[in-house]
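Section 3.1: Structural characterization of target chains.
Under the original work plan, the team committed to producing a structural model for every single-chain target entering the pipeline before any wet-lab resources were allocated. The record below documents one such target. The sequence was received from the expression subgroup and is listed exactly as submitted; it comprises 78 residues.
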Amino acid sequence: MRVSVRLDEKRSERFEFLKRATGEGTTAILRRAIDRYYGEVSRGVSRAAEVLARTGFIGSGEGRGDLSTDYKRYLDEG
């Protein structure tokens, strides 16, 4: 995949610094950045699921078979 990106001055300077400091090219730096960011985001998603499960927001329950379609009627009766 080809990528075209516009960077503000601050990020452009940082990018050039990374190229000089590591000796890596644009592709290698972008690959590393994507891998690192993916790791951060994917860990956050699994942590969120763990928190929801631990606090009881994820679970199961029992109820009437038609509750998903007739819930308003049951609310009115209640």
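Residues 26-55 form the longest helix (30 residues).
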